[in-house]
Design brief:
By secondary structure, the chain is of the alpha/beta class. It has helices spanning 3-13, 66-76, 98-109, 125-131, 148-160; strands at 19-29, 32-40, 45-50, 58-59, 62-64, 84-90, 113-118. The protein has one domain (3-157): P-loop containing nucleotide triphosphate hydrolases (Rossmann fold, 3-Layer(aba) Sandwich). A hairpin with a 2-residue loop joins strand 4 and strand 5 (62-64).
Length: 162
């Protein structure tokens, strides 16, 4: 189980709450990863990055669809009507979007409970988020990965009063 699966399982355990945000997942052709899909908790789904996308915004071999990321960030990364906001992930690809960075900054400055996966490597905004005093970090390992979703769900419930 990886970061995305851990977040999805935590969200399932919190299904009685109002959840906003998104997760990302691989797009595969056979055994080869060819891109990434973004999926919101209210059922929206779109291609975030793909080997066939021509874009000045690239991570490795993947072109990033910045318009899609901007749209999802603007729609989903808001405290309005949410008990908790899940963000998968704060990484290089996502930080290309000014809307994404601004929305995450606003969420982190608000009283909204935010659960996010954050790139292990990265500088700038990625590093800033990890260095915040009000951020609690879990490190996902093979030894703890089966228990992390439960820990995340319990942590969220403590903060939303559920």
């Amino acid at each position: 189980m990886g970061k995305t699966t851990a977040l999805r399982r935590a969200a399932e355990a919190l299904s009685d709450l109002r959840i906003r945000g998104f997760t990302t997942g691989d797009i595969r052709e056979g055994k080869e990863r060819v891109g990434f899909r973004i999926q919101t908790f209210d059922g929206d789904e779109a291609v975030l990055a793909h080997v066939n996308i021509q874009s000045p915004y690239r991570v490795g071999k993947y072109g990033v669809d910045l318009a899609t990321l901007d749209r999802v960030a603007t729609d989903q990364l808001s405290a309005k009507g949410a008990d908790v906001v899940f963000v998968d992930e704060i990484g290089k690809m996502e930080t290309f979007s000014k809307a994404f960075v601004e929305r995450v900054e606003a969420l982190l400055e608000s009283s909204t409970v935010v659960v996010a996966s954050v790139g292990q490597r990265g500088e700038g905004f990625i590093d800033e988020v990890k260095r915040r005093r009000d951020v609690f970090l879990w490190k996902l390992t093979r030894a703890n990965r089966d228990h992390i979703p439960e820990e995340i769900a319990a942590w969220v419930r403590e903060r939303v009063g559920g």
